[in-house]
Write a structure and sequence with these properties.
The protein has 16 helices and 2 strands. The longest helix has 31 residues. Helices cover 71% and strands 3% of the residues. α13 packs antiparallel against α14.
Length: 350
């Protein structure tokens, strides 16, 4: 509900929350929304909220606090919680050490299992329904545990990240962030897209004479480019998913590329016949009908190959293909579509 409200109403709702649940609520908010709320809180309120959090949750919030507030939070914790928090913060972000809960029960090696079981049965709040995996150091010593609910939270966060990244957005972006902030964030990809559009426009400009003499070419241009873009995005999405799941590697890349090339060729031949028939019925020009059918085959084949190669190349360059793959793919399919269609028309019709 907090993330679904504009900033002013969000602040009003936050003021109505009971103080004892502020800490737990902050943990579940996205980074940007959480930061906007923390900015409105006074230091004492932040320290009080942090005091109600589990150490594993407090780790995420500490990175967002100012140095003064962080020091105040540390001073407010008892010695045990402070030690566990400082230990967890020494691990790199995203590592098992950062994700683990240090709230564990450890026993001496000389204690028998029967003694441990008798002790555990006396602990009523023991979380028996939470399956967990142990986190150990290089000496095999127990440091903490990662519970299954934490693992599920990570998987959900990664899924959200992939979905939003495909549109060039950040998973923690505040939908109701201020106008200027949102505009700046999205300006980069709009600018990159504009450059690619001008590149495609430059290709079209090379065939100005053909477009002046044969108006039908200008009318049919979007057909070739759009079909290539859709076909390429289908392959791109499947390849990115395969990379994320570890299903695509150098061992099967050649086979996958060949398979997608044949899919593109088959779809290209099938749809090119339909487009050729529609074009001939529309303009009564057999030459234009044949040229657009060939151009469509070439573009769908290029789109299929690009849909496989682009995410693989971007991944090896250390660039997230979900974030930039669509922009690169659109550029390729537009240029190949325009170049093949207008190039063939210039050669055979002028």
């Amino acid at each position: 509900l907090l993330e679904s409200l504009p900033p002013e109403l969000r602040h009003q709702l936050w003021q109505l929350l009971p103080a004892e649940i502020e800490g737990e609520t902050l943990v579940y908010l996205g980074d940007e929304v959480r930061n906007s709320i923390i900015d409105e809180m006074d230091d004492a309120e932040v320290v009080a909220a942090a005091g109600t959090m589990e150490v594993a949750d407090l780790v995420d919030v500490m990175d967002e606090l100012s140095e003064d507030v962080s020091e105040a939070v540390l001073r407010s914790l008892d010695a045990d919680r402070r030690h566990r928090l400082e230990t967890t913060l020494t691990f790199p972000e995203g590592s098992a050490g950062r994700l683990m809960s240090s709230d564990v029960i450890s026993v001496r090696k000389d204690v028998t299992l029967s003694v441990v079981l008798r002790y555990l049965r006396r602990l009523k709040p023991l979380p028996r329904d939470l399956v967990s995996v142990a986190v150990v150091n290089e000496l095999g010593e127990l440091l903490g545990r990662i519970t299954v609910d934490d693992a599920v939270d990570i998987m959900l966060a990664e899924a959200d990240k992939a979905l939003l990244a495909s549109a060039g957005l950040n998973e923690d972006e505040d939908l109701f962030a201020p106008v200027v902030m949102s505009a700046k964030r999205r300006a980069l990809w709009l600018g990159i897209n504009l450059i690619t559009v001008f590149l495609a426009a430059w290709v079209i400009g090379r065939f100005e004479e053909a477009l002046d003499k044969i108006v039908a070419l200008a009318v049919l241009l979007p057909v070739v480019a759009s079909m290539g873009g859709i076909a390429g995005s289908q392959t791109l999405t499947l390849t990115i998913r395969g990379l994320a799941l570890g299903q695509v590697s150098s061992a099967n890349l050649r086979w996958l590329g060949s398979k997608e090339l044949m899919v593109g060729l088959l779809n290209g031949i099938g749809w090119s016949v339909i487009v050729a028939l529609v074009t001939y019925a529309w303009f009564q020009e057999i030459g234009i009908a044949l040229i657009i059918s060939v151009a469509m085959i070439l573009n769908l084949v290029a789109a299929a190959c690009s849909g496989v190669l682009i995410p693989v190349i971007l991944t090896r360059m250390g660039i997230d293909p979900a974030l930039s793959g669509a922009v690169v793919l659109t550029t390729v399919t537009d240029i190949v579509g325009f170049l093949s269609f207008l190039g063939l028309a210039t050669i055979f019709l002028l």
